[in-house]
Predict the structure.
Amino acid sequence: MMAHTDRHFRYLLRLLSAHAMLYTEMLTTGALLHGNTEKYARFDETEHPVGIQLGGSDPAALASCAGIAADFGYDEINLNVGCPSERVRAGRFGACLMAEPELVAECVRAMAEATDLPVTVKSRTGIDQQDDYEHLWKFVSTVSQAGCRTFIIHARKAWLQGLSPRQNRSVPPLQYDMVYRLKQDFPELEIIINGGITSLAETPGHLRHVDGVMLGRVVCNNPYLLAGVDKYLFGVNNIAASRMETLQNYMRYMEREIAGGENLYAMARHIIGLFHGQHGARAYRRHLTTKAVQMNAGMEIVREAAALVN
């Protein structure tokens, strides 16, 4: 989800659901501590509840970032121990840390001591040859003793050698039963399942075994899927905004951001899939992808695209 779940995308998602927990893209400790902290960490107040996802393996650096997260007003700190990309691996964070549960526990403990915010962990079921249930059990047992009470598990192992990040999202088989078994063995922990879930209709089956469901790429491709979450999963009897109403609300946000100097495409790219499966969606998509990237593109591009699905 790196380079996608930025503050613009999260603002769009909050227009669709008032209750779903949102997360930032993975932010490295180096970026937050030595880069443009304001650029990476700021978010709109309407995004709550929102968690910051961190990438790193230095307990002291992560503790400092936890303090930054608290100062910015985040609701949760999530440590990513599931990303399999080579760049992440070279920095000694992401999925490779599943081989070092004691270090992950040390990182969690340092963050928990630095802030009162809940510290959670997102992982895979395993990595490379360390992919049996015993390894996963040991990982969760070790890290939970450091104070982590919530684990978000992508129900696939990660091959750190031989598969690209894209392949790691689909080639290793899904192992939902391993995640279900975790909840049985750790009933006191909150276990949230992730991976391969493409519709809200699938979620009740998972929720019979675990405490929550995380949606990822499917929402990037079809953000309007989130419009049904409040009623379907949270029992809120409200009428969701239509796709066009959502677009109009987001366009007002875009106009404010453009007035502040933001680039059109940085925001328009998130609404390319808003009319997924609807009449005129292909023409709408084509117009945005070809026109919004042009130099000095303005809001008229979005209005023209919207007219194609009316």
